Amino acid sequence: MITFLLTVFLATTLLLALLTYTLYCYEESNQAGKPLGPFLALAGKTALRSIASEMAILLLHPLGLWPRLWKEPTGGRDLVVLVHGLFHNQSAWILFRRWMQAQGFATVCFSYASWNSGWDETVAGLRKDLESLLAAHPDREVHLVGHSMGGLLLWSALAGLHDSSRIKSLVTMGTPFAGSKLSPFALSSLGRYLGYQGETVRAVTRLPLPSHVRRLALHSPADNMVLPNAALRCKAPGWEEMTTRPVSHVAMLHSREVFREVRRWISTENASEGSRTAAQDLA
What backbone torsions phi and psi does residue 139 show, to the nearest 5 degrees? Predict the structure, then answer.
């Protein structure tokens, strides 16, 4: 029985990688009007790490079923709020949380149900969690980090927040700002709202965000879940973008390189705040 389950588990992750990378190569080759060769090379370079990350996500998923392990901030001064993507839970952040805490940040991981939920109710729940967190920690500044759909949910929640003065930055990782052509495969999950150039993503990316919140969109040239990869580009004003080293959509969660860019963005905000405070003290 154990051998059978392991075989099914491995076969599922391999099949997912094969299907998504096949579609990635086909879509990107057509979008760019270039031969398949360069995209096959990127797929080959990132596929094994993608499979390992998918396996880790599935194996660790049960840990995310205990909210107390993730929602209580531990250590640090500033708070980093982490919001996962579709079909994941808090356990997706297991490495990011550890790395953030090692850098002196306190982390909080918020979750939501991927199935049988509406967009508006999910955003409202996330906004309520943010408001409760801000009220419980009135002396802390907050940074927001969202992976994939989590980035869009954070954008929506932040846009309607009553008081966002202590939220300093928003970083997204592999967020489908223009949706994804893989959305039809999401069936009745929240993924149905991520239709390529669909109504929901267009509405979210028109929402105004507080001008003081610094925004960074990170995206990979080998993202195998957001198709076409051009949908990863954020065209809204006030955003900065950065292309990471080639890494799959899910493997962004386990990439030290991606983490360093997130940390750099947050740390730059802290440094800027410190400089302004010092200047004010001298004045």
Answer: -105, 10
Rounded to two decimals, the pTM is 0.92
Where helices occur in 33-118 by DSSP H, the ranges are 37-60, 94-102
| Burial classification of residue 81, based on how many CB atoms lie within 10 Å of its CB (0-12 exposed, 13-18 middle, 19 or more buried) | buried
SS3 content of the chain, % helix, strand, coil (to 5): 55, 15, 30
Q: List domains and CATH numbers for the chain.
A: 2-62 (no CATH), 66-275 (3.40.50.1820)
Kindly provide the b/e burial profile for residues 2-20, where b requires at least 16 CB atoms within 10 angstroms of the residue's own CB: eeeeeeeeeeebeebbeeb
Tokens of 196: 């390529």
Residue 148, Ramachandran bin (φ over 0: left; ψ between -120 and 50: alpha; else beta): left
In this structure, the strands spanning 214-219 and 79-83 are: unpaired
Strands across the sheet containing 142-147: 106-110, 79-83, 142-147, 167-173, 214-219, 239-243
Q: Is there a contact between 152 and 146 (Cβ–Cβ < 8 Å)?
A: yes
Is residue 221 within 8 Å of 176, Cβ to Cβ?
no
Dihedrals φ, ψ of 277, to 5°?
A: -65, -45
pLDDT along the chain (283 residues), means of 10: 74 90 96 94 95 94 89 86 97 96 95 95 97 95 98 98 96 98 93 97 98 97 98 96 98 98 86 38 30
